[in-house]
Write a structure and sequence with these properties.
Catalyzes the phosphorylation of various hexoses to hexose 6-phosphate. The structure is a single chain. Strands 1-11-10-9-12-13 form a 6-stranded mixed β-sheet, with helices on both faces. A 5-stranded mixed β-sheet has the order 4-3-2-5-8. It is globular, with a radius of gyration of 23 Å. A hairpin with a 3-residue loop joins strand 9 and strand 10. It is built from 15 helices and 13 strands. The chain has a domain of 169 residues: 2-Layer Sandwich (Nucleotidyltransferase, domain 5). The mean pLDDT is 93. By secondary structure, it is an alpha/beta fold. The chain binds beta-D-glucopyranose (BGC). Beta-D-glucopyranose (BGC) binds next to helix 6. Beta-D-glucopyranose binds next to helix 6.
Length: 453
């Protein structure tokens, strides 16, 4: 038996690569600010990395929306169909989650839309609205160039999707065609929107200060309310003083802007993803990648002999085996307690881990999740400073924000440090943004098309 060595100091040192200094964070903010301006500007938009798409959602809900609406939510880990009844100060909502099998996520666009339409028709049958003609809001959480509220051209797939024949096409048309191919249900697609937009809308229904929508889930993105005069790409009807912008900030860094803080682990995740070179900021933050970043660091430290006595396990060495939910679980253990950590390590075939190993594993998790929270905070602070309003509520959704035990606090502290004097903010968990938001957008759109605004 060798002497028990304490490797924690060395692990801490190795994890320094995940630490963002305040100077680096300020630099990231200034670069993001530049990229946002490029996205908004007429001459710079075409080549800009952060696209700042105009959403064509012109009105926030006013709380008076009423009626029965359908919503679709595609783009996270699950695909959902919802039916929502908006009433006086309350709403009720029923939903069902449908799996999107891997072969559909990476198959043809036609198969994807047929699958969605089939789930929708089955859902309508189950909820006894099969014969009704209903309005539908479609939350589609990928970068869309919107040409109107019901027309959006897919720019690129992100996260786990790569269906053929959809990039460059109108997604609403794709869904309409699939519904028409079935010919059995009557649906009016009233709006297509991003999940960040849905989150903002859903919070704005109750909280009128809500002017930023944020997702830290499978992917990462934010939308915000911008003055129309700053949106040079806007070609819609004049008259509105503000527009909702979908930043698509997950692409930030695709031109190397973030290379000065990326690590070998980030490069590894990127090179082995289905979209190398794309969504660089997202890959440093979101749930699709966070667990893998942790795993890669654990593998390196194991090979260096700093963890598990130098002995890993088959699972540890397998790509994708360390789920992001493990990070949340491990960090949920109270200080000095390693109950969840031990469970995770056992699941990974690492039951030979000592308590020192567990402290090391936990430190890796904390380093990676803290960096993610700080990067998101840099983004939110950049938006808050740009908007320069005295008080803004940020509506937030997504599995990382929702389930990570410290993400909210990390963000509150960091953003407070980064915003200019006189700017106040609240971070508000959205109750099911992408679902309810989609129904609300459909409701507002219908209100407009019926002229009963
Ligand atoms: C997509 C965004 C989306 C975000 C969160 C990103 O990969 O490009 O449109 O809002 O994920 O779901």
């Amino acid at each position: 038996m060798g002497m028990a060595v304490n490797n924690l100091p060395q692990i801490r040192e190795e994890c320094e690569v995940f630490h963002l200094t305040d100077k680096q964070i300020r630099e990231i903010m200034s670069r993001l600010h530049n990229d946002l301006l490029k996205g908004l500007g007429k001459d710079s938009h075409a080549t800009s990395i952060v696209k700042c798409w105009i959403t064509y959602i012109q009105d926030l809900p006013n709380g008076k929306e009423r009626g029965k609406f359908l919503a679709l939510d595609l783009g996270g880990t699950n695909f959902r169909v919802l039916i929502i009844n908006l009433g006086e100060n309350h709403f009720d909502m029923q939903s069902k989650i449908y799996a999107i099998p891997n072969h559909i996520m990476t198959g043809t666009g036609v198969a994807l839309f047929d699958h969605i339409a089939e789930c929708l028709a089955n859902f309508m049958k189950e909820h006894n609205v099969y014969e009704e003609r209903l309005a539908l809001g479609f939350t589609f959480s990928f970068p869309l160039k919107q040409l109107g509220l019901t027309k959006g051209i897919l720019q690129r797939w992100t996260k786990g999707f790569s269906c053929s024949g959809v990039v460059g096409e109108d997604v609403v048309q794709g869904l309409k065609d699939a519904i028409a191919r079935r010919g059995d249900v009557q649906i009016d697609i009233c709006a297509i929107l991003n999940d960040t937009t849905g989150t903002l809308m859903s919070c704005a229904w109750k909280n009128h200060n809500c002017k930023i929508g944020l997702i830290v889930g499978t992917g990462s993105n934010a939308c915000y309310v911008e003055k129309t005069e700053n949106c040079e790409m806007f070609d819609g009807e004049p008259g509105k003083s503000e527009l909702l912008i979908n930043t698509e900030w997950g692409a930030f860094g695709d031109d190397g802007t973030l290379d000065f803080v990326r690590t070998e682990f980030d490069r590894d995740v990127d090179v082995n993803s289905i979209n190398p070179g794309k969504q660089i900021q997202e890959k440093m933050i979101s749930g699709m990648y966070m667990g893998e970043l942790v795993r890669l660091a654990l593998v390196k430290f194991t090979r260096m002999g700093l963890l598990f006595g130098g002995h890993g396990s088959d699972l540890l060495f397998e790509r994708g085996s360390f789920y992001t939910k493990y990070v949340s679980e491990i960090e949920s253990d109270k200080l000095g307690d390693y109950t969840s950590c031990m469970e995770v390590l056992e699941e990974l075939g690492l039951s030979h881990a000592t308590e020192a190993d567990m402290a090391g594993v936990r430190h890796v998790c904390e380093s990676v999740s803290r960096r993610a929270a700080h990067l998101v905070s840099a983004g939110i602070a950049t938006l808050l400073n740009k908007m320069a309003e005295p008080r803004v509520t940020v509506g937030i959704d997504g599995s990382v924000y929702r389930f990570h035990p410290h993400f909210h606090t990390l963000m509150c502290d960091k953003i407070a440090q980064l915003v200019g004097p006189g700017i106040h903010f609240d971070l508000m968990l959205s109750e099911d943004g992408s679902g309810r938001g989609a129904a609300l957008v459909a409701a507002v759109a219908c209100r407009q098309s019926l002229g009963v605004a």
